[in-house]
Amino acid sequence: MRKGKKGITWLTVIALAASLMAGCGAKEKVPEETQDKSSAGDESTVKEEETGGILRMSMSMEPTGFLSTDISFLDSYILASFVMERLGRLDKAGQMEPFLAEEFIENPEDMTLTVRLKDGIKYSDGSTLDAENVKWNIEYVQEVKASLGAIESVEAVDPKTVVITYSEWNSSGVNQIGGLFMMSSQAFEELGEDGFQKKPVGTGPFLFDSWDAGEKISLVRQDNYWGEGPYIDGVEFKLIEDAQARLSAFMAGELDVISPGINEAETLDAAGYPCVSENPVVGGMLRGLIFNTLDEGPLQDVKVREAVCHAVNREEVIQAVSGGKYPMADQFSAKGFWSYNDNLETYQYDIEKCKELLAEAGYEDGITLPLTYPASDVELATIMQGVLEKAGFTIEMNSVEQSVFDQAVVGGGGWDGIAMWTSGSGQEINGFNDTFGEHPFFFCSSLEPVPEIVELINEGKAATSQEDIKVCTDKLQELICVKHCLVCPVFMPSTFFYTQKNISDMNIGIESVNQLTPQLIKIK
Amino acid sequence: MGKYFLKRFGQMLVVLFLVTFFVYLLLDLIPGDPVYAILGNKIRPEQYERVYKELGLDKPFLVRYGEWLSGLVQGDFGRSIYYKVPVVELLAKRLPITFFINVIVMTISTSLGIWMGIISAVRRGSKVDNFITVFSNIFACVPGFWIGIILVYFLAVKLQILPTMGFTWPWEDFALSVRQLIMPILVGVLTSLSVMTRQTRSSMLEVVNQDYIRTARAKGMKEKDIIRKHAIRNALIPVITLMGIGIGFIFGGSPIIETVFSIPGMGNLLVSAIGNRDIPVVQACVFIMAAVICMANMAVDIVYGLVDPRIRVK
Q1: How far is B200 from chain A (nearest CA, A)?
Q2: Which ranges of A145-261 would DSSP assign to H, the alpha helix?
């Protein structure tokens, strides 16, 4: 009798658990046919269903804050784009087009850049985006980062016009000013710097609702948005650091958008999810090798550097790293981008040529070179080691912790021999200046400055037309990648985006990897 | 007893001081610059200088440690360098989640582990013993993250009956909370159950072969009473030690479980904080874990006396 009672109790518990799991789980498991049917109704039904809903996204890394100077990596760019907007927007060829601005007027003779603003743009706190506010934003960034070129003054000449005067003409000015996220100075004063970075106020289609540190960030729609939309009720960004966990969540339908790594992208492709990125490279990164040309050693000889470049079998590296998915790079720019140099003849994989150059440099018996890389790059570094050793180099692997690597390449410690190199793809004059210019700060601590390059960068900065800038960037790529062979570009890691079928008009990864149209997003 | 307690408490304070000092020292000795760890490499010298001073890195090590310690004494764990909020605020959210999950895991795995260990030892050589032994050995060998991934794949991705991640308090949404907890708890229980089962089994086997057990049998005592009154109490000493260690995990969390299931707990926080060089957060987590482990060890010593009066007499 007692045994029977026990059995009934257990059965009841199991049945309850099963019904709980099945009952609640059924909510998510919507058959595809049902989804398709619901989206194939008449126009009014579709319109009704396309509005509202919460877009569920993930972050692989949590931003430290949302001051315009803090936004530095992909997740923070995407998140900020829902709340804050920029004066300009890149088109597919990488040119800055006005967005919050009505127009950008460059006047190299007067060394001024005039920004005319659109009418009727308001921040979510009710304040107006006017010239005084833009001036405040520019001065704030200038004070914190000093990265906007040699600005002499910023003047709000009337409520809709800001004039920036440079002490040296800056041909990257439109890109730099146009790329700034605009922050409400009124909210900044009210909340203070600490408060604002945790609850930014911009002109974007969404408002910051809450930020649970280490967990999630929630946004809600801004009903008084100045433009079209927004159509959805809100956005939730969950912090999911593990790539596999993000993939599982997306495949289980718990996330609407994902930017997977290369391995996870393969899984999604195999499962039939369509990749929505049209331009997975622009705005992303460029990977390759950079040489220590400063310290005494074999790499001071350009022939040895050329030999290394000839030894790099890009196809093999790309196959090993991404199964052949990443586009090859032999210069800074991606094909189709305005700064891509079609006529550039770079070093191609040629072991014979490599050996010949080494013999000419006096290293016919081979050469040993250190390869310095951050521990997180071990896979790529090992592939590079294999590729270079096939050509007769002996590579000494020097793995260091990421912050040690950063300190070495940026802070001045320098690196031994060759270092794994990362740069922005689609280079502008400003980007060249960061590493090869007069006052470099990025991957420059073991580079001997080349006067010819420094001079050309200065020329490029002072260029007054887009044609002149193009001539300079073409020439710079030739000098850096070919003549002086300071770096060996290898590939551009693509950033892919996948969305669930019911998400539309997000336009993510179309012009560049960090641009989207949050105001137009619809959930069917 | 009071004197003993005071002595142990004094020892605990010394241990805590040493732990926090050495952790602070080790974090200071890790190669690399915290500023780069926080901001990445594309920073300008002006930015570097600003953050370097904000972090107080321009002060000597002992001054920084002294400041942290004086804050701690006043109940102030400092401010997170990465999240830019008071550490207490972070802990207040994370600690209860980790505690909640791990108390459930520990309760289930301990009670089930002890029960399985006893059954296995008492029925040594039987089919049940073989099954429990194989089961324990399998889960002692298989890493927790692997079990987690497999469970997620089948139950969440394929069958879609459970969510892949997250944490919700039962009073916010009971059904969702239960569904979110099933997999993490299952992984936690399966990975810790085997250790508890194996430990109980071997302790019990040692005890059931003792003379006093044979004597009890010879006296004609019922087998159930022998096990309950004599064997279990004697076999529990090493199991209690194991439980004491487990209590540390109740607060420290399991970084693997929390990462695989994206649970915003202490383990996750600690791992992220180490990566971000968020020294105040690391210090606070380590301090709490060390304090809990010290207290648990003290409690274990007291429980030894309750379980085995001979220890109390000594």
Answers
A1: 26
A2: 173-178, 185-198, 243-251
Backbone phi, psi, residue A165, to 5°? -110, 130
State the smallest CA–CA distance between residue A244 and chain B in angstroms. 8
**B227: nearest Cα among B244, B242, B212, B249:** B212
Give the confidence band of B311 by pLDDT, cuts at 50, 70, 90. Answer: low
Q: Express each pLDDT in A73-83 by its tens digit.
A: 888 889 999 99
**What is the rounded distance in angstroms from the CA atom of residue A5 to the CA atom of residue A233?**
51
* Alpha-carbon distances, residue B178 vs A10, B160, B162 (angstroms): 18, 15, 9
State the average pLDDT over residues A441-458.
86
Using an 8 Å CB-CB cutoff, list chain B residues near A32: none
Locate A140 and state its tokens: 């704030």
Q: How far is CA A105 from CA A110, A142, A461, B275, in A?
A: 11, 20, 16, 45
Calpha distance A198→A211 (Å, rounded): 7
pLDDT band at A38 (very low <50, low <70, confident <90, very high): very low
Residue A393: exposure state from Cβ atoms within 10 A (0-12, 13-18, ≥19): buried
Chain B CB contacts of A62 below 8 Å: 82-83, 272
- For chain B, which domains are there? 2-73 (no CATH), 91-313 (1.10.3720.10)
pLDDT of amino acid A43: 41
- Give the C-alpha distances (Å, rounded to integers) separating B82 from A74, B39, B97: 17, 9, 21
Mutate to test the interface with B, among A142, A242, A439 (most CBs of B within 10 A): A242
pLDDT digits (tens, 9 = 90+) for A167-207: 888 888 888 899 899 999 999 999 988 888 888 999 999 99
**What are the pLDDT digits (tens) for A263-296?**
888 889 888 888 888 766 666 788 999 999 988 8
**How many Cα neighbours within 13 Å face the side chain of A118?**
15
State how far the Cα of A446 lies from the Cα of A283, in Å rounded to an integer: 26
Could you report the per-residue pLDDT of B121-144, keeping only the tens digit for each?
Answer: 888 889 999 999 999 889 888 888
Between CA A236 and CA A57 the distance in angstroms is: 6
SS3 content of chain B, % helix, strand, coil (to 5): 80, 0, 20
Identity of residue B120: S
pLDDT at A514 over 70: yes
For residue A286, give the amino acid letter: L
| Under 8 Å between Cβ of A238 and A120 | no
Closest residue, chain A, to B50 (C-alpha) = A144
User: Contact B311/B304 with Cβ under 8 angstroms?
Assistant: yes
Would you state the pLDDT for residue B313? 52
A2 burial (CB, 10 Å; 0-12 / 13-18 / 19+) is: exposed
Residue A87 confidence (pLDDT) above 90: yes
Name chain A contacts of B185, Cβ cutoff 8 Å: none
User: Residue holding tokens 């390449």?
Assistant: A409
Residues making up chain B, counted from first to last = 314
Q: Give A392→chain B minimum CA distance, Å.
A: 32
- ipTM above threshold 0.90: no
CA A327, CA A320: separation in Å to the nearest integer?
A: 13
For testing the chain B interface, which of A410, A425, A427 should be mutated: the one with the most B CBs within 10 Å? Answer: A410
The residues that bridge with A162 in the sheet, in sequence order, are: A115, A156
Q: Give the per-residue pLDDT at A26.
A: 39
Q: Given the structure tokens 């693997």, which residue do they identify?
A: B256
